Amino acid sequence: MSGPLRTQVAIIGAGPAGLFLAHLLRRANIDAVVLETRDREHVQQRVRAGVLEQSTADLMDALGIGARLRRDGLVHAGVNIAVGDDLFRIDLKAPTGGGTVTVYGQQEVMKDLYGAADERGLRMIFEAGDARLHDFEGAHPFVTYTHDGAARRLDCDFIAGCDGFHGISRKSIPSSALKIEERNYPFGWLGILADVPPVGSELIYASHSNGFALASMRSPARSRYYLQCDLGDELAAWPDERFWDELCRRLGPAGEQVTRAPSIEKGIAAVRSFLAEPMRHGRLFLAGDAAHILPPIGAKGMNLAVSDVLVLSQVLEEFCRNGSDSILNSYGVRALPRVRRAESFSRSFLEMTHRFEDSGPDRKAQLAQLRDLQTSVTAQAAFAQNYVGSPLN
Questions:
Q1: Could you tell me the pTM of the whole model?
Q2: Radius of gyration (Cα) for the chain, nearest Å?
Q3: What crossing angle do the helices spanning 106-120 and 16-27 adopt, rounded to 10°?
Q4: Backbone angles phi, psi at 47, to 5 degrees
Q5: How far apart are CA 385 and CA 381, in angstroms?
Q6: DSSP one-letter string for 285-347
Q7: Do the strands 5-6 and 150-155 form a parallel or antiparallel pair, or are they unpaired?
Q8: Which helix (H) or strand (E) segment is 180 a member of?
């Protein structure tokens, strides 16, 4: 084994959570090393959601990586809800004191994070194989891994598990120490990407008797669309023609504005929610998808990862100043309320808009909720506040 490296924080995972944390720690003058099992290109090119809350966009500015976002991001001051042949808009600005969301693909966020990481000399190790976490219940944790054919060791004061749902961080914690809440929904999201102009200038969420649909975008010339589908569906059962026909049907009158073209990407994702508590075990901290996954309808995944690591960076900075273990205990206390609020919003929005066959709300109850959302100023204000997200401290 080669001589061990030394750092204050070992960050496991080089996705959004890990890279945002690395930049936040650099700003706080805390040394960190990022370990990633995959190669850099794979991590950067993963296609994920692209709706940024106001606070996420503001944090990118504060970290000095927001220039392309402000130039190329699509700022939305409202969202649209389609219910059968009806379409109504929910204003985001008025109820939130000017809040907006920005459509900006996760791949673009990663370009900004990695570009700045290279300029600032952040330490990142890719293709770190067979990574294992050790002694994080004590004061001297370390990580072992292989790189370039050699066994390696990284000594540290803390480990930040930012490696997603399938990563090693959460799995390294004894199962008896975690409380898991999980729900798997009986449907999936079929998504396509196409080089066509989007429908309108803002997102459209559609609730139809056939199921849910979402009309989104990545740029003025590239659109992202989703359909609720059966979990067991095969992609072969959804040729482009069938997808476009069903999308237009579920979008109602807005479907007449859909431009059709061959899809350049297509996939089916399961819809689920997951939460592991506590988010800290000894000197191992979980952040982002390693700790929680929400239904995608609320566009909260990456935004919650950012809020987690902002809290974590503040906790570690405070600890480095006064060394009190009570500060470490505050991580979950400070991060979880935001997760819970987002979970509640995403679940209620999903149950209001998706088709449920055997369990869940019936169609009459959904239509009543949607009608209330359309007509009630109070309901729209609550929706807007949850959608835009609360400010980050």
A1: 0.95
A2: 22
A3: 40
A4: -85, 120
A5: 6
A6: EE-GGGTEE--GGG--HHHHHHHHHHHHHHHHHHHHHH--HHHHHHHHHHHHHHHHHHHHHHH
A7: parallel
A8: strand 179-194
The kind and range of the H/E element at 20 are helix 16-27
Architecture in CATH of 5-52+105-181+272-353: 3-Layer(bba) Sandwich (3.50)
Active site residues: 76, 205, 296, 300, 387
Rounded CA gap, 21 and 19, in Å? Answer: 5
Burial annotation 284-293 (CB, 10 A radius, 16+ → b, else e): bbbbbbbbbb
Three-state DSSP state, 329:
helix
Average pLDDT over residues 354-373: 90
Give the pLDDT confidence of 41-87 residue by residue, as tens digits: 888 777 667 899 999 999 999 999 999 999 999 999 999 999 988 99
**Distance of alpha carbon 296 from alpha carbon 272, whole angstroms:** 9
- Residue 83 β-bridge partners: 86, 207
Comparing CA positions, the residue from 292, 331, 287, 291 lying closest to residue 309 is 287
Q: Are the C-beta atoms of 81 and 90 separated by less than 8 Å? A: yes
What is the domain partition of the chain in residue ranges? 5-52+105-181+272-353
Segment 84-91 mean pLDDT: 95
Largest CA distance in the chain: 67
Q: 188: which 2 tokens?
A: 């999936």
Cα of first residue to Cα of last residue in the chain, in angstroms, is 42
Q: β-strand 204-208 against 78-83: which pairing, if any?
A: parallel
